[in-house]
Each structure stands twice: as structure tokens, then as C-alpha cells.
Amino acid sequence: MPDPEVRNQREAVDSGGVVHLEAGHLSRTQIVLFAIAAGSPAVGISLVPMLMFSYSGMQSWPSQLLGMAATVCIGLTVSFFARRYVATGSIYSYMGNAFQGRWARIVVAAALLLGFVLQVAIIVGVVGVFLGSFLTEIGVDAATGAAFQAVIYLVALGAAALIAIRGLDASVRTVVIAAAVSLPLPLLITVLSGAHTGLELPHQFDLDELSVNGTFQGFAAGVTFLVGFESLAALAAETRDPKRNVPLAVMSLPVVLGIAYLLATIVQLPGLAAASAQIEAGLSPPAALALHAGLPPAVGTAADLLLAVSMFAGLVGFVNFGSRFVATLAADKLLPSRLAVVHRRYRSPALAMIVLTAVGFVVVESAVVVAGDVTSGYTALATALVYSWLPAYLLLSIGAIVRTLRDRRVQWRVIVAAALAALVIVWLYINDVLNPPPGPSAVMRWVTYGTMAGLLVIFGLVEYRRRRAAHRTA
Description:
This protein is mainly α. The protein has a single domain (24-473), classed as Up-down Bundle (Amino acid/polyamine transporter I), CATH 1.20.1740.10. It has helices at 4-11, 28-38, 41-56, 61-82, 91-95, 103-137, 146-165, 168-182, 184-197, 201-204, 212-222, 242-274, 276-280, 285-292, 297-331, 350-371, 374-406, 412-434, 439-473.
């Protein structure tokens, strides 16, 4: 009887010698843990409360609650499609089952291609922020400079690509271990900060001081840590019982991480208010909270290193998710077909991973150079990420309603969830017009729209030529 690994490798090669992804590889436990760990929970717990506080002040919990509710609604629409179709293109693949023609798929292709590049750039940028802070604390003064940061980006991206290329087993192990190692200290800092300052719940829940504009701006900023949570659906073809396990993994992120971020926000807000001077002076939020709670400075330094480890876990995750999306576009001829080639030994879209990380490096380094510093470059890219991903979410929500009505089997849970998600997204656009973001964020939205328009033109021309060629050969 042949070795199971050899048998699996044989089954992965079709009669034409083409290697495919390894079907049915990930178990339910693996994909759920991979999903949650790739969300970098340690970093979310450490940074989301500060983002909420910077926009909404002490009344920040509604922003986080709104973000969790919106992503749960989007998760339900993703699950609606994931229970029906097994695909490697996530939202992009679902569009063909929701709308007639290919126009929706092309719009989503443009939005998510930019989105995945930005995700990789942002995540490695945050790795650089935390690792640079750690190195500065131990005496490496050049660690936050553009040249040193470029080295960090190259090393982190190269390591993430190498791990991802070696297959899902290597990726899952790395991501879960990194998340497990990095999580306890931020949790400890959060608990001790809350115990030191108290929760000030009457102040936090004083609705008279609540600002609608601040709530939505805080939501738009904080949701950056949940944007792209459904990307793991790109692993459906490599998951056992995908129509059951992928929806469970998709919903685990907005529920588990959404609740964790909401609780962390409520617990940390009084400490963030008390430590605002230290944060403005340049300390990271966890380092400032640790000092204010009476912990030694070394705790903040260690937290920075662990948060860099947590973000690296997210980087490995999104290199896996994004590369499969890129390979799907290549298989559909929207991108060069070589990007769809799967590594013969490791069964991963290796070339797509290399290209995605290379483009991500160019984007993050360009952002740092143009913005003038690492933090401003990250902020600009984070703003662009939200604007790039929202069109895909909007079409997904509308598509779920269209699909369920076309089936003539009204599923009210899906319709209500999709309608609420669409309303929130539309209101974000309206609020953006009525209350435009300040400074660089306002510029970045137009850069994002312009880039997406350029990709739409390119994909539209590719699709036009494909149709003409098909018509000539018919």
C-alpha cells in the first residue's frame, strides 16, 4: 500500500501534469485556530482601544460594538455563500453566483487585489513599528529610520513567504504558536490597567456625551483590524467538509475577536485617558498602560517585541489568503496565468506568494518615504485599506439578497444581515462626505479610488479581449 503522502501527491496531479492545491487538508480545529490567530488578537487588544479613544473619547464602546455587529452581519452573508460553494477566490468567486455577467466579479477583483496588497503592506509595516520600538528601547537608535525599517520589511516578508510556500501545515503551526506566545502579556497589562484605574462605567456609558460622528469615525478606524476577516474562505478547497467548517471559521473572527476588542476597550479606556501624555510622547499604548499600572519599563519593551511576533503571525496568514486570491484571478485570466501555478512539492501558489510580498514591500516602503515616517505611512495605508475593501462588502451584501430572492427560498436571517451590513457601509460613505477625514486620510481615499479605477480599466480591457477572442473562435 503506497505511503499516504505519496498517494496525496499523485492525486494532486491531473492527467495533464498540472499540480493542484491539496484538497481536504485542514481540519475544523486547524482552520478555526488559523483564522483567529491570523487576526493577530494580541495587537488588536493592544491597539483597537487606543484607536477608539482617539476618535470617540471615553464613549468609545459604541464604535467597537458597531464594528462587531457590522462584521457579524458581513460574516453571515459570507457564510451564506460558503455553505453553497467551495471556492478559492472568497468574495470574488461568490459574485458569479449572485449577479449575471462578470461585471461584479471584476469590481470585486479590483477592490480585493488592492486590498490584499494593502493588507500585506500594513501588517509588515506594523511589524516594523513594534520591532523598531523594541530595538530602540534596547539601544539600536537607527531602528525606526527608513533604511533600517526597509531591512525589517524584507526579512519579515521573506520569512513569511518562505513559511507560506512550505504549505498550510507549516503556516498553521507558525501562526498559532506565535499568537499563543504573544497574547498573555497584553491581556495581563489590560487586566492590571483596569484594576489600577477602575472602569469608570458611569462615565463610559453616559450617552449624553456620545457623538454620532465620533462613533462612526471610531468605527471606521477600528474596523481596520477586522477588515478582511473573511479572507480565510480562500482556503475552502483545502479544508475538510468546507461547507460546514469554513462558515464556522469565518464567524469565529467577528464574534471571538469582536467581543475581545469590546471588553479590552471598556477595560483600557480609563488607563488610556490617564496615560495620554505618555502616549503622545511616543510610548506605545501597552507600554504606557504598563507604566501607569506600576509595572517596570521592561514590561513595555517586552510587549513591543511580542506584538511584532503577533503581527508576523498575521502576515503569514494573509500571505496564504491573498496568494490564493491572486492565483484565482490568474486562473480566470485577469492576471498572468503563471501566478496560478502550484508548487509541485508543497502544493502552495508559490509564485503568487512571492509576487504579493514583493509588491507589498514596494507599497509599504513607498508609503514610509512619501509620508516621512513609519507611523504616518502606516496610518495612510490603513485608511486606504478600509476604502478599498468596502465596495466588495457592499456587493457581497447586495448579492446575498439577490441570490436568496432568486432561489425563491426567503432566508430572513441572511436578508436582514445583508441589508444591515449594506446600510452601515452606505452610511460610512455618506458620513465621509458630510464629515470628511482630516489631512492625509482625505487624500488617501482619492488615491484608493484612483487606483481601483485603474485596475477596473485594466481588468475591463482584459475581459473585453477575452470575449473577442472567444467570439472569433466560436
